[in-house]
User: What shape does this take?
Amino acid sequence: MLFAILFSVLLVFGCISTTVSVPVPTTSSSGVTTTTNAIELFDCKTDLVCLIDLSRDCLPAKAAQVSKANQLGVLQTITYLLETRGMENNKCIFYVRTEKIDLNYSSNLVNKLLAENLTLEQIKTKEEEANKVVDAAEGTDGTCRLEATDLVTVLAKWKASAFSSDDLKDARCMGRMFAQQNANETNECTLSTPFPALALARGGRVILRVDGFKGSEERVSWSVLDPSVASVDFPSGASVNVVAQNPGVTKTTAVDNSVGPNCKVSVTITVNP
Assistant: This one.
């Protein structure tokens, strides 16, 4: 009878049912994590309205969300997998994974680079290097437990492309996607930055600052994944001057050595012509 009711709901909202083997982790009060049997998910395809409606009762379902943006000529396409996996202790289990990230240079950006005497081969190489940087984020996932009403609110915001780093701050989240957030909420590491990502024109400069470091600010060190894209003038201190060198995407990372090498925060830097 329950399956018949769920199937009727899916017909109304245009969802398609499918059986997917999804293990659900459960953590006991003693901290021991076990895995329950696989659950049946209902595939909403790319229909977030379907997922939102089913999440009101924490019914198992999944949907794919594709987010697109143009960052100064760099076309970004990110695909997320969103799943509701039932309830645990009166909380909805919500799973999210970054499936795919693609960066493509727009024709306008390509023309600008050509005008600066870059060849098509060089431009293609830059584009491939940028994609290699963001490839590291593919597969990043996490599981959160939150009230159904809060989950509906979050999904409604995401449907409207109104993303915020605070959307799940009140939920109990675990996984690599939330590793930095969880680390910065511990008593040991409180390092943070108001700039998780920024875009600069080539030759541009910006001062980045971190807060929440322990001890002397001289114990904060900085590094850049690809110095040919962006560099830092002063590799230590709470503030650092970032200089955009060449078009591409890279990351600069600050580490609070007063706490340890795992107390760090990163900023993604996109350099455009």
